[in-house]
Amino acid sequence: QQQVKQSPQSLIVQKGGISIINCAYENTAFDYFPWYQQFPGKGPALLIAIRPDVSEKKEGRFTISFNKSAKQFSLHIMDSQPGDSATYFCAASYSGAGSYQLTFGKGTKLSVIP
Amino acid sequence: KAGVTQTPRYLIKTRGQQVTLSCSPISGHRSVSWYQQTPGQGLQFLFEYFSETQRNKGNFPGRFSGRQFSNSRSEMNVSTLELGDSALYLCASSTTGIDTQYFGPGTRLTVL
Question: What's the CA dihedral at A114, A46, B12, B29 to 10 degrees?
């Protein structure tokens, strides 16, 4: 069964600190790894995505680190702000089926306290 | 561009009934995917349509079905509703299916 395991379930970080969320996958055919951010009452919104030929990708305060041999990837949020408080989902998919069928982690509820 | 829109936003049904949810993708997007989100199971892929054809299907019973129209709008139908079908149903659209998926706000279905 294709799975993506995400940890931790919840995370409390001080304003200005670094938030780190980790994910591990099993299916080596996965070739697309996005992170989504979801606020209450809203649908998930794409934050940043990476493909396995790259070990790190940075966009503003958000960085994905990817370890292909360990089948792990993580999201780092630098200088965390209260506005970053949301639920974060990692996901994985492969393009071989003709379209992305995102397999999601169970989510991490991030709370950034002032 | 307008985002993905889903109607209705909230729905209450009773067991045994059927329900139809609607999704209008971003203009120019031809791929529409549906996901179910529950506290216990998280986000799970239901199916994906491209140019009116179902290309992929997740591991859900046949009570869950969908279709896509020539204007790329999509509907999903759940027949013989069960209590466990209570969930947030999310629609996502993309240009080709192998690119960024943009999610709508979802339809919150409650089955009593």
Answer: 150
